[in-house]
Amino acid sequence: MIRVPSPAKLNLFLHITGRRADGYHELQSIFQLIDLYDWLEFTQTESPQISIDGLNSVDLEQNLIYRAAQALLPYAKQPGGINIRIEKNIPMGAGLGGGSSNAAATLIVLNKLWQCGLVTEQLARLGLKLGADVPIFVHGRNAWAEGIGEHLTFIDLDQKQYIVLKPDCFISTQLLFSQKTLTRDTKPTKFC
């Protein structure tokens, strides 16, 4: 059994600078990883199936952990069954990137277990197909982000303490970004 942390992130600010033809939004942000973690446990099994325990509120086919494992199967030199158990501490629908972080942790661990041989950049590109902020978690570093969140410039940030308050509601990122009143024309800024 392998047990790994899956961190949350904060967007220290978010500028939406435009909307692409495919519906994604162009943005600028600083991603700050924080010490709030989900924990994932990976146990190889005799069965060829991929199973997820601890996140029953999400359909298996929509689960980013499951989708990450499926995305790696074509590269696996030693594929095998896996049971992934999640201890969920990052609130869902809070904008903290928990699902994307879980997907990134799955890509990293199964890349090794299944001997896929993919390097970090390849995992980040594969992760981008799962979600715009999966690459930041694959790299595991704070970054200035542009594009849809995939163009990353890694930065060192002073360690600060943050208080994260989450109201008792779920906010869908897709629903939030589809609001007609959302400002989509913030003037791009430069990061030095």
Compact summary:
The protein is built from five helices and six strands, in the order βββαβαααββα.
Task: Report on the architecture of this protein.
Helix 1 packs parallel to helix 2 and helix 2 (98-113) packs across helix 3. The longest helix has 16 residues, at 98-113. It contains five helices and six strands. 23% of the residues lie in helices and 30% in strands. With 192 residues, it is an alpha+beta fold. Strands 1, 2, 3, 4, 5 and 6 form a six-stranded mixed sheet that branches.
Q: Distance between termini? A: 43 Å
> What does the largest sheet look like?
6 strands, mixed
Structural class: alpha+beta
Overall geometric form: globular
Question: Which consecutive residue ranges, at least 5 long each, have pLDDT under 50?
Answer: none
| Rg, Cα atoms, Å | 17 Å
User: In which range does the helix fraction lie?
Assistant: 10-25%
- Write down the secondary-structure element order: EEEHEHHHEEH
Total E-strand runs:
6
Percent of residues in beta strands = 25-35%
Number of helices: 5
What's the pLDDT, averaged over the residues? 89
Which keywords apply here?
192 residues; alpha+beta
What's the structural blueprint in terms of helices and strands?
Layout (H helix, E strand, L loop, with lengths): L1 E18 L5 E21 L4 E4 L10 H9 L8 E7 L10 H16 L6 H9 L5 H6 L3 E4 L4 E4 L18 H5 L15
Parallel strand pairs: 3-4
Antiparallel strand pairs: 1-2, 2-4, 2-5, 5-6
